[in-house]
Structure formats: structure tokens, C-alpha cells
Design brief:
heterodimer, A: alpha+beta, Uridine Diphospho-n-acetylenolpyruvylglucosamine Reductase, domain 3, Enolase-like, domain 1, five-stranded antiparallel sheet, four-stranded antiparallel sheet, 12 helices, 14 strands, B: alpha+beta, Aldehyde Oxidoreductase, domain 3, Aldehyde Oxidoreductase, domain 4, 3 domains, seven-stranded mixed sheet, six-stranded mixed sheet, 22 helices, globular, binds flavin-adenine dinucleotide
């Protein structure tokens, strides 16, 4: 297997023309998959194209409109070490803090987490709640789309052959007073989320003026619940109100059973987690 | 003045990565062997082998041979007590990890490609996956032609008149408990290297807990002379019982017979380790505990059902220990324990730290908490009132003549601020959180028990250079027994610990000394070693008398690096003295046989060996926890264990055993949920089978009680296992304290806890939480 290390985007695009080439960011998802493929006698890529040498794919930059542009090949640890992330995107910081373990965060990248498109990908609920967009580039040019459109199913994205995810753009969210992320895993680290919830709530005079709720691990992709968001409008964040909305969540959510948890547990907890937003 | 513990003898080499484990051994030109286990991929746990197709595998460049059952010389059966496990299965597979072929390849890549290209035709047979169902008439038989069908062993321990005592008891509490399969999950998976040398000796370096016994396992299965097998056991990267018995041993031996004298390595990957390795037995218990109104225990009655999986392995022996510990470390005059150990088509169960006792402790301690609640007694006081002390008769009717300091353990916990402040802790719970403190009293027998001599033979040498060398014959799985041996020898020989060298177990150079198991390693071999060192010390002093021209031994002493004659102040370096002595004279060998119980008032039927035990380690554990009401997650915030291990040889070694046992026990209690479906392992790797991480285990306070076991080397007892038995009952007790939950099915997963919480608490209370 060949390993190519481009430094600039044009070099990267050229490298991707290599027959049987596959992109390698941190490798924390890909290498696990390749190992399984080898064990089962399935074909392996002929070449791996490393992204970590392409400088423009890293770092955080503020855009003119105040959005933050996060490099797709930035590692989780790099993002967490950046002061802008913790200040301006606390829900994403909270998610990345709990992603994997220190070695995984040192290797794994935001772009890898997104392109893997796991129902349990930890960065996805906060990015969805933030209304993030992705930037995609190829020899044919650059396009931008909402992250919610980019991820089309478990393990599926609208990435075209030869295309690279270059950046994630998170619009400003300073006017949301409640910014929350919680991951429920089976242990404190190295745990796939069983349920997660990212929530952004904007209050006006103590009442909900806008609520964005995004759950991970309860459906094939990040799950939104417009009924619950609507029901929160105009409410104060009391236990009673949140309990009522939690019931709406439990009615609408359609999780599955798997090795980590039953559908019932996920349903129950998906509703319960809202109570954490209560202003006690 | 407390003596500062020297660092472990293996601390530097392990911390720097210099230590060579069996996994690291890769001789020049080494071939690679791998077992083909078709059941998992085919989804068959019980099936008839109609054919094995190796043609595609043999076409893979670098694949040299594919061996099947037909290529196995000898009986093709192994097993420690019952020879019922084939090296390679020729007719049937009895669990999803059974191997039907062994591949030899030039490289690991060729081996993997070859294994992926193997095909087998396996006709599924009806399987049996539930031990209860396995005992029903007409159940599919795991082994044909056995008089007892799927029942491997039924045994009964009886003392007094349990039935009558239950009727007469003022109060009786009952319960059904279950504990799951547990995976050892050692860092170093099962592995080794083997080579047949031209002189006809089969050389093996293995990750094994039982190098001496392995020779007989391999020799027996393959029809080889066991004395023509030489086994070395370097430091293990973990064992916990899972490397007691043949893992790679027989397969590697078979491989080495077919390589034309080349060395061959076998190392299981994690999936294979989980698929084919030995596990902790899943157990179901149904128990009743009776007492007088003041809490004095009168009777314990229990039925246990063990799932040993496809092969007997140590099923009967694990069950024996479980039964012997079933009623807890308490004085109970009337006891009846009945156990059945059953074959199924599940993975093979075997030894695991806390050998059967970890399966019993949640039950006996769960009932103690139940009893305390029923009688309105303080749970710690109830335990203290009934705790075994020296001179008592235990539940098998053994008079405890050895050190029995459970009360001191309980007192250490009773005085701890986490215990005295437990109500404050409960009341200080933040929103959506319950807080609780729980307690458990546990114990663990030491040694093999009656019927199997627990013997070790130690050898110590003064080298020509004037240094000491201990021939350690008991594998060190990481528990630090090798370091303990160096320290015991240094103390006995009055030398610096660092100046004592160690030979690791080698069947050619060391004497047979049993397995690294049963809390016996340091105790039994240590005793033998202390004797050997005392003999060597005496010998060296005597030999020095001649050059010193002394006509008595008075005033001669062994000092670090030399012998001195006190009255004259003359000294002779050991390097000089060594040169006076022929090689044979610089060696001392001594043995030790663990004492056994003599007069037993209880009776036992059904066991082959192992009943009863005489010496026990004791401990009291405390867990301070938080339970999240919204998710059912438990956080163990603080943990305390007070352990009676006799006299402490080194605080570091002692604390590491207590803390490691607690961590593994926390895994057993909260996280480790081995899942099977029709004999297939669903938790097939470490992303699905979760063991605790550093974030899941609190700093554990380890307290030592001041004790001394007179029969132990420098007063010590084995503490390797007792620590694992505490966390499950202590956490269950804390869950009862914080939320009134009564949990009897391990592990206590968030899912089970959330369900239990919603039952325990009316819906109204939730909203006002
Ligand atoms: C032990 C362990 C624990 C883990 N724990 C967690 C966890 O708690 N939460 C969680 O969400 N994930 C977890 N993961 C998964 C993984 O670490 C993350 O998804 C990580 O962010 C993946 O990033 P990567 O750079 O390693 O991706 P890679 O493995 O390099 O790539 C993954 C896939 O995305 C493609 N890709 C990567 N970057 C780009 C790009 N810029 N453009 C186009 N395609 C691209 C690759 O071609 C590949 O197909 C864990 C993984 C391991 C091994």
C-alpha cells in the first residue's frame, strides 16, 4: 500500500486521482476499518493519501461575518487547545472533550468525525444545533452546504469522488444563553455515545424564544425534534415544562436496540436529558 | 522505624519498555501459527465438522501447512482435571471458538490472508446455551456418552441441620442472584514461541501461569514425553487466571512438530482472545439466610448453578471454592450449599481472580444488607457481630487456626470518615443525583485446598561473582511475586534487595512449584525460599569458618556482600568466599507444603479435590457513589479497602493488589457485560466489551490491618484475589443506601438502574426532584 503526503490542495487533488486511493486523516476510524477488512479477506485501498500535511486544512479562522471556520484536518486536541473554541463554541468543546481519549483526540480530526457519519459521532449534535455548514473542494471547485444535508445516512455523506471536506463553518451563536452538551456513554472515556444531546436555547425575559435540540445515537443520523422545540417556545425552563417536553420527545423518538443499550433506555434518557436544562 | 519498600524488581525494566514478555519473542526465521475457528463467522456454536477446505488458504503465498485433527499425534485431548478438550476438533465443534485447523505461514500477513481464505463445512447441531435448559431431559448433549449428560459435577457441603434451622429461625431473608461471564482482558493476549531442537527437546516460551503443568498438558495431548518439553515463563502482561491451563500451549506444540525445526510463534489477537479464551463462570444462586432476632446468624442455605461452557476446564474447582465461600466470612452453625456445574455450548469458563468467590460475594453480602434492613440493625455492626475470628469454626466446619482479622478490617472502615459521614454524604446530593455509601465484608481462601498438595520448591544460589540468584519457579503475571521473592531473599540473607537477581520460571533450571494462582504464589514459594535462604546463610557462615580459622560459628554473620567475624572484625567478600566453593555447594534448595485443615465438622460430597481450605485473606470494602437519576449512571467517587493479608511485606505490592482488585471488581460490578446470543459472543472486542478506564475508577485508599500469619513467609498471606470480591457487594450496598434499590443481577448497568429507580420511586417524586 502506497502512502502519499501532499502539502498543498492541488497536490492533494492530484494524489486523489491515484487509482484505489483513500483519504487518511487521523486514521482512528479508517485504520480500524482496514484492519477488519484484512481479517475478513476484503480488499484494501491501494494508496492512502494523508491529509495531515496540508496546512490549509488545519487551524481556526474567524470569517468576516463572525463565523468560525474550523479546518477539517485539525485534530480534536488542536481545536480544544484553541481559545476561540472554548469561548465561542462551548457545546462543541464539551463534545470534543469527551471524544475517545487523549491519544484518540491527538490523532482524530473533526473532518474524520464528520465523514465517518456515525450515528454516534460526538461532534455532530453540537454542530447540527449550531447550524454548521461544510465546505467541500475538488478540482472542479468549491461548494458549501448545510451539515444536515451533507450527512445523508449512517456512514453516508454527499462527498463526491475526488472531493475533500476542507472546513466546517460554525455561525455565531452568542445570543443563545443556554448552551449545553451531554454525552451518555457506558463509561467515562473511550465510550461510544448511547444517547447525546446538544441544546441551544435563546431566552427572552426568561422565556424560550428559540430552542435547537439535537440528539445523537437515537436514530440513523442526528435527530431533531421540531415538536419538542415548538413546545418549548414561550416556556420558562422549569422542571415541569421540561418534563412535559421530555414526554413529547419520548413519543417521537425512534431509537433502536443494540449491544450498548435498548431502544427503551434510549427513549427514556433522550427525554430525561432535557431536565438538565432546568434553571433550578 | 518502618522500612521503606524498595521499588519492585521489575519497575525500571517495565517502565522503560525493556522487559521482554513472551509476546516480544520473535527469533530469526520464525514462522507464524494461527488457529482457524469457523464457528464465529458461520454463526454456529455446536456443529458437526463435515469438511475443512484449505485449498484457497494453501494457495496464498507464504502459507506453508494446514493441519487438522488428523495431524494431531496422541489423544488430541487436554484439560486440567478432565481431558475433554480437543487440540483441533475433528468431528464436532462445541462452542463458537473451537478450532478445526492450524495454519503455518511465513509471515503474519500470509497467516491472516490464509485464515481469511479457509472454509469449513459445519452442519449446525441443536445447541444448549442456558445451564438450566442443559439439565432438562432431552437437552442436546455437549459431550456424548457421559452418564450424567450435561451435568459436569454436583456437589454438596453440609454442616449442622440447615433445613430444621431455617424453619426455626426467627427471621429469614431470601434472594436469587446472578453474576455474568467476565473476560480477563489482560493487556498481553495469549501467546508464545516454540521450537523443536535437534536433540528432541521441545523448547517453548509462553505467557503462562502454569509452566510446569503445561508440559503434561502438551505431552498428554500430543503424545510427547513431558520431560522432553522445556518451558520458560517470562513476566506475563496480565493473567488473572486466564492463562492457567492450555491456551496456545498444545497448538504451538503441534505447530513446532511440523516446521522442520524452525521456531514458530502464535499470538492471539484481541478478537481471538475473547472468542477462544477462558472466562469467569456465569453463576445463578438461590439463597436463604436465617438469624435470631438479635442478628446472630443461624443458618445459610444455597443452590448454585455454574455454566462451565463447552469444556470442564476448572469448572468443578471454581465451583468448590464458590460453595466453600457461599455463606460469607461469618459464623453460621447450620449450612447447606448445593452446586451444579453444567456443560453448555457457551465459551469455556475457568479460573479468574476471585475464583468462584466473586460470584458468591454479591449474594452473601446482599442478604446481610437485607437482614440488617429487616432487623433495623446497622449493617456494619451486623457484620462485626457475626464475623469469623481466630478459633471459630467456619461454614465448612474448619477450625480457623490461622490469622483471621476481619474484625480489624471492619473496624478500620467503621472509623473512616466516609463511613461515619455517610448520612451527610447522602443528604448532600446535588440535583438529579443520589448519593450513597456501601460496605462489604469479604474473604478468599488460599492455596489448592485438600487433596492437591500445595507445594513449592525454591532454589537460591551464590554465584561465582558473589551475588545471589533466586530461581523463581512461580510465574509473575504482574502481581509482583518475583519482586517479593527478591525481597524475602534479601531480608533472609541480610542483603540489599537490588543485589538479589532473579531467574524467571524455566522448567529446566527451576523446581516444580505449582501455578501462579489461588493466592498461593508468594505464600507457598516464599516459604520455601525463606527456608532455602536460611540454609544458604547457615552454609555460607559455616564455609567461612574455615578461612577465618574459627572453631565455632559464634560471631560469624552474613552482611551485605560479605561474611564478617564480629569478635575480630575480619571480613570476607562473598566474591572471594564463592571461589572456595564448588558450584553445587553454592546452591540451597528447600520445599514448603501448605498446611491443610485436619478435623472438619462439615462434610462435602462430590468434589474431586480442593475441599476445604485452612487459610483465608479478609477485607472490608467501602464504596461512596453517586447515581444519576436521569441516566442511571453510577460514579464511584471514593473507595476504601481494609485488607487482612497478615504482615505486609511491601506496602507498594500490597496496595497494588488491593487497588487492582478493586478496579477489576468495579468493572465486574458496573461495566463488564459479556453478551452471548446462541453461544456467539456479541461483545466480541474491547469496543463492545467495556472494562473501566482511569476515569471510571477512583483513587482507592488501601488500608492494612496489623496482622501476622504465623505459617506465612515473614508473616504474610496472599492478597491477590480478595480485593476483587468486594466492589460488587459494596456498590450494591451503596445503591441500597442511596435509593433503596435491591440489585441482584450483575452488572449494575445504567439501564438496569434506571429501570429499578423508576420502580422504586413514584412518578410524582420525579417531577419534584
Ligand atoms: C478507540 C477509539 C475511540 C473513539 N471514540 C470516539 C468517541 O468517543 N466519539 C466519536 O465521535 N468518535 C470516536 N472514535 C472515532 C474516531 O476517532 C473519530 O470519528 C475521529 O474524529 C475520526 O477522525 P480521523 O481523522 O481519525 O478519521 P480517519 O480515520 O482518518 O478518516 C475517517 C474517514 O473519513 C474520511 N475523511 C477524513 N477526513 C476527510 C476529509 N477532510 N475529507 C474527506 N474525507 C475525509 C476518510 O477517508 C475515512 O474514510 C473513536 C475511535 C477509536 C479508535
Amino acid at each position: 500500500m502506497k502512502v502519499l503526503t501532499p502539502r498543498e490542495l492541488p497536490e492533494l487533488f492530484a494524489a486523489l486521482e491515484t487509482p484505489g486511493a483513500h483519504m487518511l486523516a487521523g486514521g482512528t476510524d479508517l485504520l480500524v476499518r482496514l484492519r477488519a477488512a484484512e481479517r475478513e479477506g476484503r480488499a484494501l485501498p491501494q494508496a492512502l493519501v494523508r491529509l495531515d500535511g496540508v496546512a490549509v486544512l488545519r487551524g481556526i479562522v474567524r470569517e468576516a461575518d463572525g463565523s468560525l471556520r474550523l479546518g477539517a484536518a485539525a485534530t480534536h486536541a488542536e481545536l480544544l487547545a484553541h481559545p476561540l473554541l472554548r469561548q465561542e463554541l462551548p457545546e462543541l468543546a464539551a463534545a470534543l472533550c469527551e471524544l475517545g481519549s487523549p491519544p484518540i483526540r491527538n490523532m482524530g480530526t473533526l473532518g474524520g468525525n464528520i465523514c465517518t457519519a456515525s450515528p454516534a459521532g460526538d461532534s455532530l449534535p453540537p454542530l447540527m444545533a449550531l447550524g454548521a455548514e461544510v465546505e467541500l473542494a475538488s478540482l472542479a471547485g468549491t461548494r458549501r452546504m448545510a451539515l444536515s444535508d451533507f450527512i445523508t445516512g449512517p456512514g453516508r455523506t454527499s462527498l463526491k469522488p475526488g472531493e475533500v471536506l476542507t472546513a466546517v463553518i460554525a455561525p455565531p451563536a452568542r445570543n443563545f444563553q443556554v448552551r449545553h452538551f451531554e454525552k451518555v456513554g457506558r463509561r467515562g472515556a473511550l465510550a461510544v455515545a448511547v444517547v447525546s444531546l446538544a441544546a441551544l436555547v435563546r431566552l427572552e425575559r426568561g422565556r424560550v424564544a428559540e430552542a435547537r435540540l439535537a440528539w445523537g445515537s437515537v436514530g440513523p443520523t442526528v435527530w431533531r425534534c421540531p415538536e419538542a422545540e415548538a413546545a418549548l417556545m414561550g416556556q420558562r425552563l422549569t422542571l415541569t415544562a421540561l418534563g412535559r417536553v421530555g414526554a413529547i420527545v419520548r413519543e417521537n423518538v425512534r431509537p433502536i436496540d443494540d449491544i450498548r443499550a435498548s431502544a427503551d433506555y434510549r427513549r427514556q434518557v433522550a427525554g430525561n436529558l432535557l431536565l438538565r436544562l432546568a434553571v433550578l | 522505624m518502618p522500612r521503606l519498600s524498595p521499588p519492585r524488581a521489575d519497575a525500571l525494566s517495565k517502565a522503560t519498555g525493556a522487559e521482554r514478555y513472551a509476546f516480544d519473542v520473535l527469533p530469526e526465521g520464525c514462522l507464524h501459527a494461527g488457529a482457524y475457528r469457523p464457528g464465529a463467522a458461520l454463526g454456529v456454536a455446536h456443529g458437526r465438522v463435515r469438511g475443512v477446505d484449505a485449498s484457497a488458504a494453501l494457495a496464498v503465498p507464504g502459507v506453508l501447512r494446514v493441519l487438522t485433527a488428523a495431524d494431531v499425534p496422541g489423544p488430541n485431548l487436554h484439560g486440567i482435571m478432565h481431558k475433554d478438550q480437543p487440540v483441533l476438533c475433528g468431528e464436532v465443534i462445541r462452542h463458537a471458538g473451537d478450532p478445526v485447523a492450524l495454519l503455518l505461514a511465513e509471515t503474519p500477513e500470509a497467516l491472516r490472508a490464509g485464515l481469511a481464505a479457509m472454509r469449513a463445512d459445519i452442519e449446525p447441531l441443536p445447541g444448549v446455551f442456558d445451564p438450566e435448559a442443559a439439565l432438562k431431559r432431552g437437552a442436546p448433549l455437549v459431550h456424548q456418552g457421559r452418564k450424567d449428560g450435561n451435568l459436569l459435577l454436583r456437589a454438596v457441603i453440609e454442616k449442622g441441620k440447615a433445613k430444621a434451622a431455617l424453619k426455626a429461625a426467627a427471621v429469614v431473608v431470601r434472594g436469587e442472584f446472578s453474576t455474568p461471564v467476565q473476560e480477563h482482558a489482560f493487556l498481553e493476549t495469549q501467546c508464545g514461541v516454540a521450537q523443536m531442537l535437534p536433540d528432541g527437546i521441545l523448547h517453548m516460551t509462553l505467557s503462562t501461569q502454569s509452566p510446569f503443568r503445561d508440559r503434561f498438558e502438551i505431552g498428554g495431548a500430543l503424545g510427547l514425553d513431558p520431560f522432553k518439553i522445556r518451558i520458560r515463563a517470562p513476566h506475563l502482561g496480565g493473567g488473572f487466571g486466564g492463562k492457567d491451563g492450555a491456551t496456545v500451549q498444545c497448538l504451538l506444540g503441534l505447530a513446532a512438530l511440523n516446521t522442520g525445526g524452525k521456531p514458530v510463534r502464535m499470538a492471539w489477537d484481541r478478537e481471538e482472545s475473547i472468542l477462544a479464551g477462558f472466562k469467569r463462570h456465569a453463576v445463578r444462586l438461590r439463597c436463604a439466610l436465617g438469624a435470631e432476632a438479635d442478628g446472630t446468624l443461624t443458618v445459610f442455605d444455597c443452590r448454585m448453578l455454574f455454566d462451565t461452557g463447552a469444556y470442564a476446564h476448572l469448572g468443578g474447582e471454581v465451583m468448590e471454592l464458590s460453595m466453600e465461600h457461599a455463606s460469607g466470612p461469618y459464623r453460621v452453625p447450620h449450612v447447606r450449599v448445593e452446586g451444579r456445574c453444567v456443560y453448555t455450548n457457551n465459551p469455556i469458563a475457568g479460573a479468574f481472580r476471585g475464583f468462584g468467590v466473586a460470584q458468591a460475594s454479591p449474594a452473601f453480602e446482599g442478604l446481610m444488607d437485607e437482614l440488617a434492613a429487616k432487623l433495623g440493625l446497622d449493617p456494619l455492626a451486623l457484620r462485626r457481630k457475626n464475623a469469623l475470628t481466630r478459633g471459630d469454626e467456619n461454614c465448612s466446619g474448619v477450625r480457623l487456626t490461622g490469622s483471621t482479622d476481619l474484625c480489624a478490617c471492619l473496624d478500620a472502615v467503621a472509623g473512616h470518615p466516609f463511613w461515619t459521614g455517610r448520612e451527610d454524604w447522602r443528604k448532600s446530593a446535588p440535583p438529579f443525583t443520589r448519593r450513597g455509601v456501601g460496605l462489604a465484608a469479604v474473604f478468599n481462601g488460599m492455596g489448592y485446598g485438600r487433596g492437591l498438595p500445595d507445594m513449592a520448591i525454591a532454589k537460591v544460589e551464590l554465584t561465582e561473582a558473589g551475588e545471589f540468584l533466586v530461581y523463581n519457579a512461580v510465574a509473575d503475571m504482574g502481581q509482583g511475586n518475583a519482586s517479593a521473592f527478591a525481597l524475602l531473599a534479601a531480608q533472609e540473607l541480610n542483603q540489599e534487595a537490588a543485589s538479589v537477581g532473579l531467574v524467571m520460571p524455566d522448567t529446566e533450571r527451576c523446581h516444580p512449584s505449582g501455578s501462579s494462582s489461588a493466592g498461593r504464589s508468594t505464600y507457598t514459594f516464599g516459604n520455601a525460599l525463606v527456608r532455602a535462604c536460611a540454609a544458604l546463610r547457615h552454609k555460607l557462615i559455616s564455609r567461612a569458618a574455615m578461612p577465618f580459622l574459627c572453631d565455632t560459628l559464634d560471631g560469624l554473620e552474613l552482611e551485605p556482600g560479605r561474611v564478617v567475624h564480629r569478635p575480630t572484625g575480619r571480613a570476607m567478600p562473598l566474591s572471594v568466599l564463592a571461589r572456595f566453593l564448588p558450584h553445587d555447594d553454592r546452591i540451597c534448595v528447600a520445599e514448603f507444603l501448605m498446611p491443610v485443615a485436619q478435623d472438619i465438622s462439615g462434610s462435602a460430597r462430590g468434589f474431586m479435590i480442593g475441599f476445604p481450605h485452612l487459610l483465608f485473606a479478609y477485607a472490608a470494602h467501602l464504596a461512596r457513589i453517586e447515581l444519576d437519576e436521569l441516566t442511571g449512571r453510577v460514579r464511584v467517587c471514593d473507595y476504601v479497602c481494609a485488607t487482612d493479608g497478615g504482615r505486609v511485606l511491601t506496602r507498594q505490592g500490597f496496595d497494588q493488589q488491593a487497588q487492582g482488585g478493586a478496579a477489576q471488581g468495579i468493572g465486574f460490578a458496573l461495566f463488564e457485560d459479556f453478551r452471548l446470543d446462541q453461544g456467539r459472543t456479541l461483545t466480541s472486542d474491547l469496543t463492545r466489551y467495556l472494562i473501566p478506564t482511569a476515569l471510571d475508577v477512583p483513587d482507592t485508599v488501601s488500608l492494612a490491618v496489623d496482622g501476622c500469619e504465623d505459617s506465612g513467609p515473614h508473616g504474610l498471606k496472599g492478597v491477590g484475589e480478595v480485593g476483587l470480591n468486594g466492589p460488587a457487594p459494596a456498590i450494591a450496598s451503596a445503591l441500597r443506601h442511596c435509593a433503596g434499590l435491591r440489585l441482584r443481577q450483575l452488572p449494575f448497568t445504567p439501564e438496569r438502574l434506571l429501570k429499578a429507580l423508576s420502580k422504586a420511586r413514584p412518578a410524582k417524586a420525579r417531577r419534584s426532584a
